[in-house]
Amino acid sequence: MAAAEQIALARLLPIRPRTVLYESFAGNGALCNPEAIFRRLLADPDFGDLEHIWALSDTDAAAALRREFAGRRDIRIVERGSAAYWTAVSTAGYLINNATFPPSFGKRPGQVYLNTWHGTPLKLMGFDMPGGARESANTLRNLLSADYLLAANPFMTEVMYEDAYQLRNIYPGSIIEEGYPRIDRQRLTDAEEESVRKTLTEQLDVPLDGRRIVLFAPTWRGASFQSPDADLAHLADQAAELQRGLGDGVVVLVKTHQVVHSLAQGVPSLRRLLVPNTIPANVLLGVADALVTDYSSIFFDYLATGRPIGFLVSDASSYAMERGTYLPLDELPGPVSTDATAVASALRDLMAPGALRHARYDEWAARFVPYEDGDAGDRVIDVVFRGRVRDRRIRTARRDGKPRLLFYVGGIRMNGITTSAVNLLNSLDREKYDVTALMAFPRGDTTRRNQARLDPGIRQIFRIGGMNGLKGRQLLRRLEDVSTDPLRAHRRFGHRTLWRDEWTRVFGTARFDWVADFSGYSPFWAHLMLHSPRAVRAIWLHNEMAADRERTVAGKQPFRRSLGRVFAMYRAYDQLVSVSPSLTELNRAELARYAPADRFRTLRNLPDPVEQAVDAEPEAPRSEEDEAWRHALEIEGVQRFITVGRLSTEKNHARLIRAFSRVHAERSATQLFIVGGGPLAADLEAQVRAAGLTGAVFLTGPQPQPGRIMDRTDCFVLSSDYEGQPMVLIEAAQRGMPIVSTAFGSARGALPGDDMHVVDRDDDALAEGMLAYLEGRVAPAALDVEQYTAEVLAQFDELVPHPE
Length: 804
Fold this sequence. Notes:
The protein is of the alpha/beta class. It has 34 helices and 26 strands. The protein has an eight-stranded mixed beta sheet with strand order 3-2-1-4-5-6-7-13, with helices on both faces. Strand 17 (about 515), helix 24 (about 525-530) and strand 18 (about 535-540) form a beta-alpha-beta unit.
């Protein structure tokens, strides 16, 4: 059975309120905070009725746990990703994870989710990382789904949760600042310490013989997954240098990051030093006499022991550039060096009898482990399992009162909707609004470039994974949405649960004041946005939508059915936003049967607040066609027309080519550049050849920076049958280009002051307009960008509810 169907079936089962599911590091072991909470619950007689389930993927860890708890019927193990796993995840009353559940996970009503995370961060996290928005997609989704987040200290709350993962304003859950249960595990009795040393002696080929232990626990570099052998060999060399520098009275043991533990086991020089994954890291810290690390959060935990820490940062310069840290490396609470021998020498002095702590040690301990008294686990259990919040350090993510805005920005392909979305979002004042952009996960180069154009201050949420629900029920939903009114089908056939669950899977418990389907073309997204918790809901009408619905491409009408379904949902939206005043009037009249007249609103498109370089111009032509049009731009004494837009029927490029043919016959020193891609590319190329215009008309294909071509041409031409407020008109007006346009329905008013030459929608009229430019009768367009932007942003402010 497919995993999706297993998940759907599991979600039909009742919640088991006295079952706890634990997962650490994607099943790599019974480790970290979940393991510490698990053991505390086992030891507390108040919770003797609980069933405990561990999700494990590491077979050694699973075997060790089975041996330890053999015969106990209240403790079970499931293999991560199996049908039993999804049953446990979907039905356990309590979910405890120190990282993330997979993208298919969606918390159900009645479940309590505690995400403990796995350490105070030194290295940059979340949106602070290079490429962090994409890298953090599933992490952000999990954090937003959690009822409780665990923080070891205020720094972790503020720097990581609120800022790096941008939970401020939208996360309504509780952040528990009561210390880390896993740090409780560092407090070992003499018997427990002896037991750990015995286990290490038995499992490693290193005699301890009463020697002191220095634990070498570096983090891992994401870029290193492509060449793990070289990095692991270097790690082995560092461990050997530390051992030589510390001398025979010390044994250096290695604790690798969870994601590379199995790889490290394959390196002979590491295997004999490699601490087994079955021993929790904090138990190791409890027996270690000193710690050496680099950028790992493990050192924050170790501060609670009061024992020495050394920092071996051999790649400090490159790491700072590639990843970065929140705190300067030269201010760490221990000796810092790029050289293992130097670290070993300084650490040997700190480990000497009677040696004082490092000068910054106590200050760091007070800041980062202020609550570690050995009882953090009990306090966390009090909050999560007993509901005791009095006198506990619990806080919510900070709120600043800004309206919380959510925009679905579409498929972020290279088109006018993407440009207008990016321009609007980047223009919004983040001191005034809290802004979130929603999109499908960008996988291609173009979508990634467009996603990267968004200002870093804009929170980005990606829909990863798919909708949960039985295959048959999903099929029925699609059929009924197509064959009937989707909102009636929603109520009549119980689809509400599917949509509500999908909203929760994507957004968790996040809350917004105003949500907008900025794309406006997809029934799926239009429907999903209607399932936000209480908010003002808006949908964009970028075009003369009734005409767009009837658009014909290659004898077919691709939008007739889908836009019909979108129209049927208009009545559930509070605001139907068109992008020019004349377009609003057109849509209000033509779509009157779908929504009341007072819901039709206007918000013009905005220019780019900062002209952004989306991609570098290729240094060399990529094809003969590229070479031809690039060379044509260098010819002197030529007047150049340009149009930019998708090669589809509503743009009517065929009319433009016919009109230009007449112009070129009269004025041979002319060229036409058609920038864009689309379904009619081959037809238009054939038309150019048939008209004998090869060498005068150039189809450039889609270009990441059409503005660069516009800057080298003279007059912008638009031949459309219908439009909204084309972004290209704003871009042409920004450049002060003369503009000739056909009289599509919303042409009048497409620019402030109607600052363009508008002609009838026929070949002769368009040709006359282009000739009028050549004769000097079309004045350059002008756009006061600052004034225009201020007017549009004032219009936008009227759309948004403002909390009192």
